Structures are given as structure tokens and as C-alpha cells.
Amino acid sequence: MTWIIKNEKPKIGVFSLTGCAGDQLMILNLEDTLIELLAKFDIKSFQEASSYSENTKLDIAFIEGSVSTDHDLKILKNIRENSSLLVAIGDCAINGCVQAMRNNQTSIAERMLDVYGVKDNVYNALEPKGVGEYVKVDAEIPGCPIEKEEVFNAFISLLNGDMPLIPDYPVCVECKLNGYPCVIIEESKPCLGPIITAGCDARCPGLGLDCIGCRGAIRGETNAKAELETLRKRGYNDKYIINRLRFFAGNFEDIKNLGVREASKGERDE
User: Fold this and answer.
1) Do the Cβ atoms of 241 and 188 come closer than 8 Å?
2) CB of 196 closer than 8 Å to CB of 213
3) Which end of the chain has fewer CB atoms < 10 Å from its terminal CB, N or C?
4) Coil, strand, or helix at residue 138?
């Protein structure tokens, strides 16, 4: 997929909704290539890098963070209306991520009571969701946080009129390409690699650790029930597995409907 570049230096903005700003920070972590790369763009807003912000039409808007309040939603709709392309960066912007882990499990009123001691929705909170639940998203860069190399490649692709290419296969593929042993088979670890989007070079399994799912589930290919059954056979109970799946990917269709109102803590069956 391509897009038409309207300006010699595309006008861009980098924005944040509800999140930790870690994805903006990963752009800044490009360090050695950052200045040269960003010089190719006309930056109109970049909250993590500068207090300067110009309210204008944009060629590309990069948004991190989930839509968790009415205020977030108003900001998002304004950005979408004034941008030719909208790129969701990070899991929060794509699917709600950590903020969405209790969606479909407890009501906003229950959460307000637990956290603030009041039932009224005094902060106009919404069910945390990715930006694509409300507006058209043209491209996504997954991760919590995003991979800086993937960000660099995405910027270059967009500069050349192309859309960023994101892997459509699981972390397991990168494990095999790197010759890593399967931590599920060899060590019975609760690895989520079979259903999680690749692009991290299987960093955690390469260190003998299990994938925790920080790049979110593969779009349209998330066989969460098969993952659940695989880990059951390794001695993990449903409560533990489901909460683990929900931590980064609770809003994905195949995951959010697993179980009902699970407790926030599970144990392994011995």
C-alpha cells in the first residue's frame, strides 16, 4: 500500500493520549540517526521532544496511548480530521494494552469505587480502547514499547510513499530462525510466542525467558483457545493463563471473551 506525499518535507505530529509516553521516548532513542531522520520531516508537534506545538493540517499524525476518557476522544477526532495519515504507535494506541486488561470483566463504576472510593464517573472515563475503535487508522506499529529499529524503518517507508511493513507471523518464527529452543516444550514455561506478533527478534526466548506478549496478538490469527489448551497441558490453570493473555492484549477479540470476571492473580497448578 502506498500514499501520495503532498509536501517535499511531510508535515508530522507526534501525540499522546492515555499512556506512559514510552513510545515517544523510543523515537528519541534513535539517537545517532534521529537528527538526520527528523530533518526530512516538518515537525509541527512532538510533545516528548519540545513544548512547541503548531495547530495545523498534517500529512502524518503518530498517536500513542489509549482512548480512556472523553477528553482523549475529542483530541483523537480533531487529530484525525486534520491529518492525511494516522499511524497508531504502541499497543495502547492499537488495542488499549494494560489499561484494557479488565475490560469485559468489571464496570467503570466498579473501578471508580475500587480506586477512588466513589461510584460516579467524575473523570468521564471510557472503557480503554485503541484509537482504531473510534477513527480510521492507516498504519500500526506494535509494541510496549515499540522497537526503535521498526520506527526507523517506518519513517523511511512513509518518507518514500510506502506504508510500514509489520510482521504478520508469530514470535515463534523468529525463535526458529535464530535457532532458539522452545521454552514451552523444553522448559514448560508459559510462553505466549505462538500468538504474539513478531518483530522483537524473539528477545526474551533468546535469553531463556518466556514471551509475555508485549507486541500484542497477531491480527486475525489469534488462536487464544489453542494457547490456553497448550499451557493447560503444562500445568497452568485457566485463571493464570487468561490474566497473562489479557495483560497486553485484553482487547483482542479472541482474548477478551476468555473466562468471566477472573481474579487479578492466578496460581500454577502443581
Assistant:
1) no
2) yes
3) C
4) coil
